[in-house]
Write a structure and sequence with these properties.
By secondary structure, the chain is α/β, with parallel strands linked by helices. The protein is built from 27 helices and 29 strands. It binds zinc ion (2 copies). One zinc ion (ZN) binds next to loops.
């Protein structure tokens, strides 16, 4: 692992795999259980075994790795448990597509063969997902890697099912569910997307059996008339009162149904008379139950019509509709067709229009489980970040409906219920029973259906740790600490984990829920294969390096907000890595021969005090930001320090001292600052920091604070070392150098050329002690340090103002152009001052903004006023163009 020197350029490919293997070999990702310490635990949201990882996974993994590495460096026993999800319907659809390419269906090959094929696919896919995760550098404990269909989770699922069944919280019943005719399974409400669709409302005439008249009903799905069992009217509607109790004919099939009265009928919809189709509409289902009406199911599983549709038996639902409308028109029963926008449910997996359908399904009674889950969030046992999602969560939970958990699929956890042929009884058991629990018959068969995939992932925080067994992992790591995931699965998953965790263990599953946003392209559009704007994380790693990708995913992120990602952002990440590499290489190459003594000598120069003071404050801020889950800001702070203060200024200042024999050595402070910067940056960019750190510490004496790997080195904390005097002084010197550099650039002076400068100040000695820095970094020679300026300059010399300091550069500038520039500057300063003054007299701002922000605005105002004064003075000197 150790090298004497860093190669000239950073090659992520040379470093990443080797470093990852080193961490794995050393076992750093596996925590040591220590009962004297509080563990930090994250259970990874299991990616679906449906394909490859996308950028959303990369973001999840990076944010979690940042937390994990930070806590590990803080010395907490840290567990990050990786996992994958069998993903029921989603995976089944993928394998069915593969079969379709061979011109086969799952029915052609049979259940056993289909399961075998899906297992093979799942194993291959899991391997690929794990390999991709490793490429990102994530430090999860692979020894605990879990799949939702491993034996442990299988037992947890069956145990939960049996417990809930015995408590009456799982039941089987006939209810309206969303049926996907392509997948041929029930779907939960969450698995159905409702799209506003421009359709039609058809007004259809039903004739009275006694020939005395008719009643008109309105519907968006006329073919469902074959499933009608009544027409309902609201008894409050006067003109319908006389028809209640009459019989009408269903067109085409001429079945007799009765007109009934129900106060729930919406009088404003259509004609106010409602056809009741209880097998295919949830509202009708409830009305039919109240009136003890039968269910007439008109569909086959593939949404063709069955025998109840008479002449339309065997028709596809949409073909039937088309033909039926022609026929009704011909029979003068189609009264009116109106355009009508309504929500049409689509299967989220295959986009087929779903049918509401009454069928026998298994349900979880959700209300009793939701109550403690609501309480857990209200009482603050669980905190959801960002907090606006707290309201969203509570609102959903308070209106929760029973959860349909059975799926007519072949891939998933089989429902642990067996039906008896002899007594019709149901036996629910964890292990396959020998005989019927009611009558003892051996003629029992298992329910063919499987459970909704979210049933198993809902148990994830406890089932991965060994529940239902009382394991050491469960006792130590549960409740886990943070659940970090995308906001779009708050209900699917997070809510269910809270309900199931509380139900099974009596404890919350986690303390914090951190919801990140969705990744979008640079224009803010959702990434999709269709729009061709998908960025593959592996391609990005290949091109820019894993650290650069991680950097670009996190910089600028905040909880709950979507994240625009572009190649430009990844390039910035790579540039940052290169900048750090080059600076580190310089530092390491300037170390004296042999082992380096990095202890601090007394009487450090002011720039040493400055950088150490900045570093100490940075450590304080970064820890605080990470505690508050503000990952994007924490990363930006480290980035700005490393690039803006350490590389651009401190190292440049240190070079001057290194090149000048006799000046105090900057090596101890260079080493200290670099080493601490690498520690601070490690959770964000683990590979490059480890590589540099190994090379650096190989040159330092052995020390307990420097273990074998950066991954387990202590994370820097603030020691309270601040030197505000040094910070003020250095910030003045930096500003002086910067303004001379800007003036040179504007005047297009050859960068190698040295120019004369006069610095006028009241504080000669402070400036004098940085003479060399100014001379070298601003390319100034000779440099005259003088008292406050008295003589007026309108000879074409450039005059610069930095706080109270005036800098005169006796180079010839175009006086007219300079006047023009100053006048423009004057205008923009005035605008700025007006804005700041308005802000600072705004009572709402003053009362709401934090004190530090207000102070910052005040000091901005003061600076702008000083600058305006100086600009105006300078314009007077030059003689204004306008007055
Ligand atoms: Zn479908
Ligand atoms: Zn029986």
């Amino acid at each position: 692992m150790h090298h004497a020197d860093l190669p000239k350029a950073y090659e992520p490919r040379q470093v990443e795999d080797r470093t990852y293997q080193f961490w794995l070999d050393k076992g750093y990702f596996t925590p040591k259980i220590d009962h004297s310490k509080q563990p930090f635990t994250i259970i990874m949201p299991p990616p679906n075994v449906t394909g490859e990882l996308h950028l959303g996974h990369a973001l999840t993994a990076t944010l979690e790795d940042i937390m994990i590495r930070w806590h590990r460096m803080k010395g907490d026993p840290t567990l990050w448990l990786p996992s994958t999800d069998h993903a029921g319907i989603a995976t089944q659809v993928v394998v069915e597509r593969q079969l379709a390419a061979e011109k086969k269906t799952r029915h052609d090959i049979g259940r056993e063969e289909f399961e075998k094929r899906t297992w093979q696919w799942a194993i291959k896919c899991r391997q690929r997902i794990n390999d991709q995760h490793k490429k990102l550098g994530i430090s999860c404990d692979w020894t605990r890697d879990t799949f939702t269909m491993d034996p442990g989770p299988i037992r947890a699922v069956a145990t939960t099912f049996v417990n809930l069944y015995q408590k009456g919280l799982i039941y089987r019943g006939e209810r309206i569910i969303n049926w996907c005719p392509r997948c041929q399974t029930a779907l939960s409400d969450l698995e159905t997307s409702h799209e506003e669709t421009q359709g039609h409302l058809f007004h259809i005439k039903y004739l009275f059996v006694d020939g005395t008249g008719d009643i008109t009903v309105a519907t968006t799905r006329p073919e469902t008339m074959f499933g009608d069992v009544a027409v309902a009217v609201n008894p409050k509607t006067k003109h319908y009162r006389g028809v209640i109790g009459k019989e009408v004919l269903i067109p085409v099939v001429n079945r007799h149904i009765r007109i009934i009265a129900d106060e729930d009928v919406d009088t404003s919809f259509g004609t106010g008379a409602l056809k009741i189709t209880p097998a295919h509409d949830p509202v009708d289902f409830e009305i039919a139950q109240r009136h003890s009406l039968p269910l007439v199911n008109i569909l086959n599983k593939d949404a063709t019509l069955n025998k109840h549709a008479g002449p339309y038996e065997g028709f596809d639902r949409f073909d039937c509709r088309k033909d039926l409308l022609v026929r009704l028109e011909k029979d003068s029963l189609l009264v009116k067709v109106e355009p009508h926008t309504h929500a049409v449910g689509h299967c989220m997996r295959c986009n087929t229009v779903v049918e509401p359908w009454a069928s026998q399904q298994w349900f979880v009674k959700a209300k009793p489980l939701a109550e403690p889950a609501i309480e857990a969030v209200k009482s603050g046992q669980i905190t959801i970040i960002p907090d606006q999602f707290q309201k969203v969560y509570l609102n959903w939970m308070e209106n929760i409906r029973d959860w349909c958990i059975s799926r007519q699929l072949w891939w998933g956890h089989r429902i642990p219920a067996w039906y008896c042929v002899d007594c019709n009884g149901t036996t629910v058991a964890i292990d396959k029973p020998e005989k019927c629990a009611k009558c003892g018959s051996a003629r029992i068969h298992q329910d063919p259906d499987v459970l909704d995939t979210w049933f198993s992932s809902g148990l994830w925080p406890h089932s991965t740790l060994g529940w239902p067994d009382d394991t050491e992992d469960l006792r130590y790591f549960y409740p886990t600490t943070v659940m970090e995931t995308a906001y779009d699965i708050l209900f699917f998953w997070v809510a269910r984990m809270i309900m199931m965790g509380l139900e099974n263990t009596g404890q919350v599953p986690f303390r914090w829920v951190y919801l990140h946003g969705l990744i979008r392209d640079e224009k803010g559009a959702k990434m999709s294969k269709m729009s061709g704007n998908v960025i593959n994380p592996l391609d990005s790693i290949d091109k820019y390096g894993a650290d650069a990708l991680r950097f670009s995913l996190v910089i600028g992120t905040s909880a709950g907000n979507d994240i625009p990602l572009s190649s430009g952002k990844m390039e910035s990440g790579r540039n940052f890595a290169n900048k750090l590499w080059n600076a580190s290489r310089y530092v390491i190459r300037s170390l004296p021969e042999g082992t380096v003594d990095a202890s601090l000598p007394p009487n450090l120069p002011v720039e040493d005090h400055w950088i150490l003071s900045r570093l100490d404050q940075l450590a304080g801020r970064v820890n605080k930001l990470l505690e508050e889950f503000r990952f994007g800001e924490a990363e930006a702070e480290v980035y700005e320090f490393v690039w803006g203060e350490f590389c651009d200024w401190y190292i440049e200042l240190a070079k001057i001292r290194l090149n000048q024999p006799g000046s105090p050595s900057p090596v101890p402070v260079l080493v200290r600052t670099l080493e601490a910067s690498l520690r601070l940056l490690h959770p964000f960019m683990p590979f490059i920091t480890e590589e540099i750190w190994q090379t650096l510490v190989a040159r330092l004496p052995q020390d307990a604070t420097r273990p074998d790997s950066l991954i387990i080195a202590a994370y820097p904390v603030s020691t309270g070392f601040t030197d505000l005097q040094a910070e003020r002084e250095m910030s003045l010197i930096i500003e002086i150098i910067r303004s001379i550099r800007n003036a040179r650039a504007e005047a297009k002076i050859d960068p190698a050329k040295r120019i004369e400068a006069h610095v006028h100040t009241r504080n000669n000695s402070a400036i004098e002690s940085h003479r060399q820095a100014i001379e070298t970094l601003a390319r100034v020679q000779p440099l005259h340090i003088l008292g406050p300026r008295t003589e007026s300059r309108n000879d074409g010399a450039q005059v610069l103002h930095v706080a109270e300091v005036d800098i005169v550069l006796p180079m010839t500038v175009d006086v007219d152009a300079e006047k023009q520039r100053l006048e423009q500057e004057e205008v923009s300063l005035q605008a700025r001052i007006t804005g700041l003054e308005a802000r600072l007299s705004d009572q709402t701002f003053l009362s709401k903004a934090p004190q530090a922000v207000v102070e910052k605005e005040r000091s901005k105002l003061q600076d702008s006023q000083t600058k305006l004064h100086k600009t105006t003075e300078r314009l007077k000197e030059l003689g204004r163009m306008r007055t």
